[in-house]
């Protein structure tokens, strides 16, 4: 008698996996299995996220879930695939695909939302090229911390459900402990997925992908006069909003290649990203971004460049007459700048406690940013200082340089109907008290990766997932809000981790 394989509690933890993506033409994916690992152990699991997805958080916190979160076992209903995509990396077109990730399926949450469940670091796939298909523990924990902080900041992002260590080293500059991250995303369809379709020169495949993606993310656009163009415009609008939100909190994505731009409008790919401390638009953290292509202040322009690549890939769908298709796409891409400016200005007005609009607001904002740059003012703490009651403000806002600007701002505040208390509340709701500061993240990763001490990371997570704790009295301990000590090395981040 053959034994009936029985699944672990974690495999039965309420997964409702569907596979709509696998109904696309087969150029878009390959069926693969995660490659088993030697000694999986659960490093961290996101219980609130599990619960919100309708999963049994207790079962997932159980030891047996290490099998699921490492890819050694599969959740009920999984049918793993590696997704195919291409991408412009630092301006150069390359065929890519999931070289170290598998999509287990699309989980249907209790509210009916469809979200991708993906393992990252799960072993070689047909798209691995020269890579080992693996990920190191430190970078996977880093993605976990920063993506959860971004979510708490109210910025659309992929989420992190769990990290499992593999018990196997990965070879980087030195051997590092290996790990697998379970990533939750509205989808993993990227600009690069459309570039892959366009490169295949298979118009039916391109159209099928476009219809699928629109129905998944923007079903209401099916009835638009030109649904493909309306979808492009919706993606442009989401990207404009997303990049403005990044910049309003000082976030530098660091690797805005077209394969790392999700059409859902979520932030994806937490490789070399980091938060800026001293305000400077030329801030770059990535060790490979020598030209500053993806510097803090270049992010809007980079997003627009990427969207132009999406429009090019979709071009045959907009109109059968090429010239007309180009005109439609060009107008859509040009609309990015106004959309971005609108989101940026609205966000900055909120950060300054403004409700109404005046023509000189942009100049007032630029003057503040110029001062911040000159004074090398900490981005987060400057806006935090503006969100403090007047009596509390002086120790936070750098002294004399800001004086005359502050007078202008104060007088601007009087030219709106709302009370000072309403303005203060608005500032406090839009200016985080805390961001995941690079040296605090490194401290947490060092404790976890060198001696399995997750308490530092858990403390940090507690703090950075409550960024708008409003009054100064409720502020987190100073160690989380102070910038890195002056003279500490310039922070560097790495790709291919
Ligand atoms: P990223 O820089 O993370 O956006 O990755 C770019 C491309 O490289 C994607 O196709 C990844 O799947 C692939 N890749 C990154 N790291 C590895 C690795 N260790 N093994 C195989 N492929 C990888
Ligand atoms: Mg990527």
What's this model, at a glance?
It is built from 17 helices and 13 strands.
Overall description:
This protein is of the alpha+beta class and 497 residues long. The protein has three domains: 172 residues, no CATH class; 262 residues, no CATH class; 43 residues, no CATH class. 42% of the residues lie in helices and 13% in strands. The protein is built from 17 helices and 13 strands. The strands form four sheets. Strands 1, 3, 7, 8, 9, 10 and 11 form a seven-stranded antiparallel β-sheet that branches. Strands 2-4 form a two-stranded antiparallel ribbon. Helix 4 packs across helix 15, helix 4 runs parallel beside helix 16 and helix 6 crosses helix 8. The longest helix has 30 residues. It is globular and about 70 Å long. The model has no long low-confidence stretch (mean pLDDT 94). The protein binds adenosine monophosphate and magnesium ion. Adenosine monophosphate binds next to loops.
Cα Rg: 23 Å
Oligomer: single chain
**Overall outline:** globular
Largest sheet: 7 strands, antiparallel
Percentage of β-strand residues: 5-15%
Low-confidence stretches: none
Count of discrete structural domains: 3
Helix count?
17
Question: N-to-C SSE series?
Answer: EEEHHHEEEEEEHEEHHHEEHHHHHHHHHH
Bound molecules: adenosine monophosphate, magnesium ion
Structural class: alpha+beta
* CA distance, first residue to last residue: 46 Å
Proportion of helical residues: 40-55%
Let me know the number of strands: 13
Q: Mean pLDDT, nearest integer?
A: 94
């Amino acid at each position: 008698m053959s034994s009936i394989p029985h699944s672990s509690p974690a495999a039965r933890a309420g997964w409702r996996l569907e596979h709509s993506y696998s109904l696309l033409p087969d150029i878009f994916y390959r069926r693969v299995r995660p490659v088993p690992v030697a000694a999986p152990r659960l490093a961290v699991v996101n219980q609130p996220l599990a619960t919100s997805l309708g999963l049994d958080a207790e079962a997932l916190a159980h030891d047996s879930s290490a099998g699921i979160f490492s890819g050694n076992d599969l959740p009920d209903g999984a049918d793993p695939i590696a997704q195919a995509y291409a991408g412009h990396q630092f301006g150069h077109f390359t065929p890519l695909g999931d070289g170290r990730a598998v999509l287990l399926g699309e989980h249907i949450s209790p509210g009916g939302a469809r979200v991708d469940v993906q393992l990252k670091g799960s072993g070689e796939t047909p798209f691995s090229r020269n890579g080992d298909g693996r990920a190191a523990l430190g970078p996977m924990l880093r993605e976990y911390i920063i993506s959860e902080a971004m979510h708490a900041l109210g910025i659309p992002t992929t989420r992190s459900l769990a990290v499992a260590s593999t018990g196997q080293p990965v070879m980087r500059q030195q051997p590092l402990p290996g790990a697998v991250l379970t990533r939750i995303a509205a989808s993993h369809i990227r600009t690069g997925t459309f570039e892959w379709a366009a490169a295949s020169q298979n118009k039916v495949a391109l159209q099928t992908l476009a219809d699928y993606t629109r129905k998944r993310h923007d079903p209401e656009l099916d009835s638009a006069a030109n649904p493909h163009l309306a979808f492009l415009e919706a993606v442009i609008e989401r990207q404009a909003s997303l990049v403005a939100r990044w910049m309003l909190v000082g976030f530098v994505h660091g690797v805005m290649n077209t394969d790392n731009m999700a059409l859902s409008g979520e932030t994806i790919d937490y490789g070399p990203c980091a938060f800026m401390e001293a305000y400077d638009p030329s801030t770059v953290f990535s060790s490979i971004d020598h030209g500053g292509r993806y510097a803090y202040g270049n992010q809007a322009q980079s997003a627009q460049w990427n969207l132009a690549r999406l429009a090019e890939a979709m071009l045959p769908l907009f109109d059968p007459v090429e010239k007309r298709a180009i005109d439609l796409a060009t107008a859509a891409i040009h609309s990015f700048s106004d959309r971005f400016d609108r989101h940026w200005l609205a966000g900055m007005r909120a950060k300054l406690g403004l409700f109404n609009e005046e023509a000189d607001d942009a100049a007032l904002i630029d003057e503040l940013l110029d001062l911040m740059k000159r004074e090398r003012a900490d981005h987060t703490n400057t806006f935090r200082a503006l969100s403090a009651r007047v009596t509390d403000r002086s120790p936070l806002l750098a002294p004399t340089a800001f004086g005359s600007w502050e007078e202008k701002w104060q007088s601007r505040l009087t030219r709106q109907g709302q009370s000072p208390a309403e303005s203060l509340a608005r500032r406090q709701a839009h200016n985080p008290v805390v961001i995941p500061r690079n040296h605090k993240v490194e401290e947490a990763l060092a404790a976890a990766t060198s001696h399995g001490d997750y308490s530092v990371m858990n403390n940090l997570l507690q703090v950075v997932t409550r960024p708008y704790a409003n009054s100064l009295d409720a502020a987190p301990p100073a160690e989380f809000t102070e910038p890195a000590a002056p003279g500490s090395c310039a922070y560097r981040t790495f790709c291919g981790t």
